[in-house]
């Protein structure tokens, strides 16, 4: 886009794209984006209307499910949410390393308070109606990266010094030496990708175990890293769980509840090594603060409500107020799906009988973190509305392991699959199955968009600079949806109007 990336211009671009592809706003569930304040604000504009009678948007929650909300209120009582809004802000991680030319003190165990910057939405709320089903979803991968910057920026001087050593190792004077001993050169640092730092420091740890390091040190004393090994060891231990989390988030689609499960597994690992590792302590603190913005949306809470790893007998992983909000959202979504599809689905009956609960260190951490008591479950079913009853009945399920199913001798290779879980219930509970697939479809990251940017650089090369905007858009649309082409071709082939 040529215009400035203000919230108004971004909203205008989205409106134009929806109109071009024939997407009505009542079909929107969520918009995934990075943590930029302009993107957050543009989605807020998108979900608000001056005219409450706009037929394209559909009625609000109050108009659709007033009866169901009253029933939920009666069920939940006067519970209030215990979510704390003490959030970190939308930091920009770019070019921070350039400021770190001096070496920081060897005492890197000194704690520093992380700085909070709360985003202020300056949108005028007068006479605006919120479209309750359109949610703003911050990219989990970008949020994880911001959590890392919160810690790395305190050690930019030390990291810059280590990077200078790596740069010198790649110099021509040493390249032949690396080649003779068949040892790879150090990776190059990309300042906007934190995981490269982990890869570089992991490379140095592996190099320390090799006799080749002593050869390098004898060749040039400036390549000595003896003062840095303690920091490098602590760094490798602390950031390995984050590196694993980043790899899991690189999949084309990671449901919100699956991303949250992976995030909590990472927190549990950091909690296990935080004693004696100040880097792990700071990283855990940052992750716990950053996750609050991601977990505050209705679609996120609805996804957790439908996931047996978070909503089970005795669970406190969703507060009563969060469960109420998620139930309201799902009741509204059910009616919206009826409206869009023209099909009113009937509710089936299903009794959950899951025996997958097995204790491990992650679940022990979560049980303590959420202060759970699995011996009791507090809920009373309302007398009518089958969908609401079934939503509340989900609380009676047995707990499913948060990450991997344990077996004797180690971890099984297959993790819990929330899509497979609900597909098995397609016929016995079609109404909940439809709702589950809708909320599971909400993306937790925008990695597919990042891949699109990378592919655009290849398509729009120096030899193809005369491509029009429309041609470029069509090319990228085909590249990103190549798996759908056979289905589209079959539809066109069966359509008589195209013959």
Automatic annotation (TrEMBL):
Keyword Cytoplasm: no
Record lineage: Eukaryota, Metazoa, Ecdysozoa, Arthropoda, Hexapoda
The UniProt record lists the keyword Cell cycle: no
Protein name stated in the entry: HAT C-terminal dimerisation domain-containing protein
Organism: Aedes albopictus (Asian tiger mosquito)
Domain of life: Eukaryota
Domain HAT C-terminal dimerisation: 414-480
Keywords linked to the UniProt accession: Metal-binding, Nucleus, Zinc, Zinc-finger
Listed Pfam families: Dimer_Tnp_hAT
Subcellular location: Nucleus
């Amino acid at each position: 886009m040529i215009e400035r990336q203000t919230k108004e211009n971004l909203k205008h671009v989205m409106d134009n794209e929806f109109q071009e592809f024939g997407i009505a706003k009542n079909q929107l569930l969520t918009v995934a984006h990075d943590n930029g304040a302009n993107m957050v604000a543009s989605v807020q504009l998108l979900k608000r209307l001056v005219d409450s009678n706009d037929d394209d948007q559909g009625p609000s929650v109050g108009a659709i499910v007033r009866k169901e909300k009253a029933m939920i209120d009666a069920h939940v009582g006067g519970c209030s949410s215990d979510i704390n809004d003490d959030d970190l802000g939308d930091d920009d991680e770019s070019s921070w390393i350039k400021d770190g030319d001096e070496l920081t003190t060897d005492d890197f165990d000194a704690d520093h308070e992380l700085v909070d910057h709360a985003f202020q939405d300056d949108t005028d709320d007068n006479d605006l109606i919120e479209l309750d089903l359109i949610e703003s979803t911050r990219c989990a991968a970008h949020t994880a990266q911001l959590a890392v910057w919160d810690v790395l920026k305190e050690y930019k001087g030390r990291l810059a010094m280590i990077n200078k050593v790596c740069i010198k190792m790649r110099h021509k004077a040493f390249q032949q030496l690396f080649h003779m001993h068949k040892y790879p050169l150090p990776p190059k640092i990309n300042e906007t990708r934190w995981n490269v730092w982990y890869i570089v420091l992991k490379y140095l740890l592996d190099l320390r175990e090799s006799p080749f390091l002593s050869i390098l040190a004898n060749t040039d004393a400036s390549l000595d890293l003896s003062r840095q090994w303690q920091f490098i060891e602590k760094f490798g231990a602390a950031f390995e769980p984050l590196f694993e989390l980043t790899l899991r988030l690189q999949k084309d689609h990671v449901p919100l509840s699956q991303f949250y499960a992976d995030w909590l597994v990472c927190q549990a690992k950091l909690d296990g090594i935080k004693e004696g590792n100040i880097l792990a302590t700071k990283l855990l603190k940052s992750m716990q603060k950053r996750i609050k913005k991601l977990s505050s949306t209705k679609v996120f809470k609805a996804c957790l409500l439908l996931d047996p790893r978070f909503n089970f007998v005795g669970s406190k992983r969703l507060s009563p107020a969060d469960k109420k909000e998620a139930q309201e959202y799902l009741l509204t979504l059910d009616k919206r799906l009826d409206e869009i599809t023209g099909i009113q689905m009937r509710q089936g009956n299903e009794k959950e009988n899951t025996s997958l609960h097995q204790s491990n260190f992650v679940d022990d951490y979560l049980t303590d973190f959420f202060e759970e008591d699995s011996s009791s479950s507090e809920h009373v079913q309302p007398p009518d509305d089958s969908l609401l009853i079934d939503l509340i009945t989900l609380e009676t399920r047995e707990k499913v392991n948060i990450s991997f199913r344990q077996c004797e001798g180690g971890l099984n290779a297959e993790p819990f699959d929330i899509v497979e879980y609900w597909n098995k219930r397609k016929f016995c509970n079609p109404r909940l199955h439809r709702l589950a697939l809708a909320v599971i479809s909400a993306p937790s990251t925008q990695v597919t968009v990042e891949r699109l940017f990378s592919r655009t650089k290849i398509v729009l090369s120096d030899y193809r600079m005369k491509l029009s905007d429309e041609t470029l858009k069509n090319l990228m649309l085909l590249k990103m949806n190549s798996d759908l082409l056979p289905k589209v071709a079959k539809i066109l082939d069966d359509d008589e109007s195209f013959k």
